[in-house]
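ok posting inputs for the zinc ion job
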Amino acid sequence: MPARFHARFNKAGVVTGFTGMILVVLLSSGHAAHGHDIGTESHADEHSHQSVAAGHVTIGIEGDFRVIESDGLPNHKTGQFPGPRNPNRISAQSHRFRVPVAPKVAEKTTPLQMHPFGVAINGVPLDPGAAEFWNRDRRSGWQYEALGGVVDLGLDQSNGHVQPTGAYHYHGTPRLLLETLSKETEKPEMLLIGYAADGFPIYNDQGHSDAGDLKSPMKQLVSSYRVRKGQRTSGEAGPGGTYDGRFVQDWEYVAGAGDLDECNGRIGVTPEYPEGIYHYVVTQQFPYIPRLFRGTPDESFMRHGPPPGGGFPGGPPRGGRGGRRSPPPPPFFPPPRR
Ligand SMILES: [Zn+2]
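and the output
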């Protein structure tokens, strides 16, 4: 990227844009969404009066924060849920996420824990981590990659599926959401998919060949992660076998191998931020949805109540804001090397 552009970004900090009030209301295609899954019936709050069949999201500015509230129902068709490969039914949620309007690059990157990386602008969480571990042991340090081709999580054509809580979420490119956002049919477009928990915007994998020039041709951006060479540790310490991408830990960042940094983002101009901003990209390759924050993730994305995937029948009800925090699971990555 041109040095002049870098300097301008650093001097200006994060460039403004989207400073006005934004209100987005989307209607879903109206699939059945009567929640009878764990935890979805037990909380009544400001969203409980809404029809569960209406996908609904509002994005507004409150002080220094962008606030995204939604019932989590996608505004596009989904796979069949419950279905043969996913027993859960989509139900209305009461998501409330908050991100800084003017996000800041932190001194150090922060690995994603078991909580959403961000939220799409239709109010559906971008939540790449699967609660599937080697030997079902989340402390093993070996986590199956949802899109690694081994664990069948019943993902639909938008790389989405449903947690036991009824929460629909994406593990990769939300294809049908992109269709709803696209204005063109012929030309590749850079589309604002949503916001990361640290406030930086998230785009699809089309970007400018010169990150600093809105007029430069578009190209498909690729991640800089590659499958490690060699064998996994075996015995007690690891599953053994050749690295093939099925585990999150099979992947390593190789600087310069692709277009993006270890957080799967870069600094560049975007339609919404023509002066340039750090932004993330959802790629067709690992990590798909990023797993490392350039800024500081907001508390509102931290998981309250039981972790996803386990079910926890008879367990504690899903907490609301200020509810019980789950104990922290091991991070997705070993500490980042700088
Ligand atoms: Zn999932």
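notes: DSSP finds two helices and 17 strands in the chain. The two ends are 20 Å apart (CA to CA).
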